[in-house]
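Example 3.2
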Amino acid sequence: MKKNQYLKELSITNTQKRNGSNNKKSDVEKIQSWLCLQEMAHPGIGTMTAIDGDFGNATETAVNHFQKFIGATQNGILDQQVFSELCKKVKVAFENVLPNSTIRKTIIDVAQNHVKQNPSELVIRNQSNSGPWVRTYMNGNEGINWFWCMGFVQTILDQAFSLHQKNIFDIMPLTFSCDTVGMKAIEKNALIRNKEIQKNPELVKPGDVVLIRKSQYDWIHTAIVIEVGTDTFTTIEGNTDINGSSNGTGVFKRVRNFRKNTLDVFSLSQWIG
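Structure, written as tokens:
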């Protein structure tokens, strides 16, 4: 698997604690990020705190609340054992899926497993599109300009293909750009345009890649197809929100109408049937 940035999100350099001599700002920020993500996933546990790299009283209290939540000793100290519990969702997302009978089925399994872990971005140093989940999908990159929808889609495909000892990047380039993937689909005669889809939705199969088109050669968002209906695709997509934004806040399963919206599809049928 080429996109393995998640491994860097699973550990801290040293045990971190209030005013600790071994405290490292980047580790404390990582801890604070996961504390906030835990509160977002489990509202009311009391772990939301500032992400500023300073392990003070507030962070210590948030750690205590997390330790209470998982049934651990409440000492406010964050060692690797507690951190592994704190960041467990990203480990589950990347390591808890086995290959299914086909690559398409595995793509769906992987995407479903990710969305269940509630991947969400954070605002860090006044920069949206930040945090551990964004970094895992964007090969370590984060910040306001790093829209992460294609990073998410390619992470899902990379993980699924790798489980079958295949390389998705033999089919499409490693990129964060929807336009780059759209143009490669045209080059490989794999792009199904919206008009064709409206005439025959059965051309699209679960596991294919939706590209939301702004103009003929300009695509602004992407998603994994999970189900194909008469008028709609059910998708799993990153960097979206309740309004279907192409610069939202998390990973969600949603329904998009291909008769009311201009949705093209990168079909994988040439390679995986």
